[in-house]
Amino acid sequence: MANEKTLQEGINTIHIEGIVKDIRIEEKPINGQDAISGEIDIQVSPESIHTVNVFSFKMNQKKEVSGLFKTLVTIRDEYKTIDVHGIENADKVRIETSGKFDNGKVGKNEYVGQDGEWRSYPKLSAKFVNRIKSDEVFEPQAKFNLELAIAGSKAETRNGEETGRLILKGFIVNYQEQKDDAKKIFPFDFVVQNPTSVNYVQDTYEKGQTVKVYGDIVNTKIVTKRLVEVGFGDPQEEIDRKEVREYIIVGGTPPYDEDDKNAYDIVLIREALKKRDVAIEKKKEEKKNGNAGSSNNAGFGSNSHVVNPKEDPFAPDAHKKENPFNNGKPLDISDEDLPF
User: Fold this and answer.
1) pLDDT tens-digit profile of 205-223?
2) Distance (Å, rounded) from C-alpha 308 to C-alpha 148?
């Protein structure tokens, strides 16, 4: 008899290397416990800055001051930043997962907005941010490596025209022992832009499969200047600033075999999504009643967006009788078929 599967957290790591631009870390009570939390901005290039979230309670299970807490205090008090000390004096740092040690990961900051809608945007978090020694090789970068359950894919369009890039939509399975069902699994969008990779994903990846993908984390600002003719005098310069946040896949594995121990069970994924929906509705109700708990963290940033969590992403297409997992072909999925 085969062992019964359980839903387990998948591979989810990041590698960020750059110069500390700014640190915003403070100590304050959280849920009645002393804690330290905040953000570290890491500059990979002048145009690419990544914000990493950090957190630790002060006391560990042994009722001793946590080593992680001490580390974050050191970062706050001793690390030098570009904003304060200048780029020549700022610390070079690295976030990486080494062996079985779990450090940085891709996540989501999700919350109920003032309008009562569920909002969601990507975030990066880490336990440690290590200084790079002067004799170490310094290679600025921001990369991800993770497993996901595929929800579908669609051609990217801009102004009604296809860009040639592909949007791959999936679910990331998070730590399952936490109490908040809304955080145990969450949707995430990726971009595939290399034409060969686009063809491979379209021809090979199907809804419901498990894959591992890796690529580049993009967080940059694009400044566009243009001259606008006016009634008289010199043309007026107009400046447009656009922030781009993308997770660009540069490679991935073939879909895992169904009997692979790391392949997600679609039944368990569905169950986790249903529990997530219930948790989200509860948070909305709490917000509506003015009783939002501490788990409903207010987010920020222009890239948050409203999502509809209720639809089943693995359900057979409405216009087809058969199960989409059985036809052996990639699915052409519209936004209406997906929960995000």
Assistant:
1) 999 999 999 999 999 887 7
2) 19
